[in-house]
């Protein structure tokens, strides 16, 4: 029986604690509190479906697949060390191999004349980690189109390698690969895709190429769903994706009010029974679909009020505690229960609840735990 699977990642599993030392947050980023925030989010979602992390999903994959990913993750200046790596792969348990996949270690050798005079074949060694830290926000890596899945292609070079891991995870959880894959040179990030039963909004801004949204439209124009393509010319700093300033709920949209009538923000509406119309303002495009607009101020956007997560098929929204007083009164009148979770540590990395959750329509028997594997 199909059900919703929620993908939520504990940051501490993909982000070594040392990374927190180099963040400029004030007060400093707290890895322990960030892990507690993810646990609170999992607890809030557990009543509505299966919750799985990236690590748990990888643990249910086949050993050969994990070894392949680990082989891609390891780097070494000395090719002769590869034989030792292969022996380790053959013997190590899956949990240790998954650490390799997520942390991406590399051996670097540093020549030194003084050391060479004593031991000609020796060099100083250092061990570098290149962790897949962005997996703490699994929203970016793919878009759930309500049946079909579009694999993402992340624009940032330091995060692009995360998608290979998510591709394996999606195949495992769904039992089949992603339905759409952007070609090289075109970028698609899940934070720029908002989908409900009757409406989808696709954003072209910082991270998603305009050419990437076109192939999604055909998949989304089903079951009477309208599609709105938005070209965001404002490009506010630290608002990387559509979901920083727009969130779709049942028949409504939380939207930054500054974008509703801005000439820098244009929207094109697609309908199944008519050709696409000309670009119009965002307010007009939403109103033409019968969507109730809930405008949000700049201050509310700064508290991540538009980065709420609406549970599919339920009148429930999960929001960060920092935005609860902004969101709850707006949604209570529409019969939507608002559940708040602490998320201040995640905010220091410019992401919130919606960024930290992604969904799949799947059967629960596809998920196995690391212990079962």
Tell me what you see in this structure.
- The chain has 373 residues and is of the alpha/beta class.
- The chain has 2 domains: 3-50 and 134-366, 5-stranded Propeller (L-arginine/glycine Amidinotransferase, Chain A), CATH 3.75.10.10; 63-129, no CATH class.
- The chain is built from 13 helices and 19 strands.
- It has helices at 31-46, 54-59, 63-73, 82-91, 94-103, 113-118, 162-174, 210-220, 257-260, 282-288, 298-302, 324-332, 344-347, and strands at residues 3-8, 50-52, 75-76, 105-110, 124-129, 142-144, 149-151, 193-195, 199-204, 226-232, 246-249, 252-256, 265-270, 280-281, 292-296, 309-310, 316-320, 337-341, 357-362.
- A 5-stranded mixed sheet has the order 8-9-10-13-14. A 3-stranded mixed sheet has the order 2-1-19.
- A hairpin with a 3-residue loop joins strand 8 and strand 9 (199-204).
- The longest helix is centred in the first third of the chain and has 16 residues, at 31-46.
- The protein is elongated and about 75 Å long.
């Amino acid at each position: 029986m199909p059900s919703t699977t929620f993908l939520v990642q504990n940051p501490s599993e993909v982000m070594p604690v040392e990374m927190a030392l180099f963040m400029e947050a004030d007060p400093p980023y707290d890895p322990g509190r960030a892990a507690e925030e993810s646990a609170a989010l999992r607890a809030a979602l557990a009543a509505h479906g299966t919750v799985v992390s990236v690590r748990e999903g990888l643990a249910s994959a086949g050993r050969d697949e994990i070894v392949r990913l680990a082989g891609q993750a390891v780097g070494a200046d000395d090719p002769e060390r590869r034989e030792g790596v292969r022996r380790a792969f053959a013997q190590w348990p899956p949990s240790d191999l998954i650490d390799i996949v997520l942390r991406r270690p590399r051996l670097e050798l540093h020549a030194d004349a003084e050391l060479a005079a004593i031991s000609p074949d020796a060099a100083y060694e250092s061990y570098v980690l290149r962790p897949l830290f962005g997996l703490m926000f699994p929203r970016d890596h793919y878009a759930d189109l309500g049946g079909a899945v579009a694999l993402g292609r992340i624009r940032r070079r330091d995060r692009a390698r995360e998608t290979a891991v998510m591709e394996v995870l999606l195949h495992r959880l769904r039992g089949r690969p992603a339905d759409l894959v952007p070609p090289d040179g075109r970028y698609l990030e899940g934070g720029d895709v908002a989908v409900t039963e009757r409406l989808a909004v696709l954003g072209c801004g910082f991270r998603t190429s305009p050419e990437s949204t076109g192939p999604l439209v055909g998949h989304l124009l089903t079951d009477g769903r309208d599609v709105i393509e938005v070209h965001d010319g404002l490009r506010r700093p630290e608002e990387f994706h559509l979901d920083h300033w727009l969130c779709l709920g049942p028949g409504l949209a939380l939207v930054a009010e500054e974008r509703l009538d801005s000439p820098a923000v244009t929207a094109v509406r697609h309908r199944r029974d008519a050709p696409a119309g000309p670009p119009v303002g965002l307010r007009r495009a939403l109103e033409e679909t019968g969507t109730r607009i809930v405008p949000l101020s700049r201050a509310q956007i700064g508290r991540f009020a538009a980065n709420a997560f609406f549970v599919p098929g339920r009148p429930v929204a999960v929001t960060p505690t920092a935005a609860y007083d902004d969101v709850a009164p707006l949604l209570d009148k529409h019969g939507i229960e608002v559940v708040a979770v602490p998320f201040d540590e995640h905010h220091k990395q410019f992401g919130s609840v919606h960024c930290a959750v992604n969904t799949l329509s799947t059967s629960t028997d596809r998920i196995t735990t690391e212990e079962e594997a």
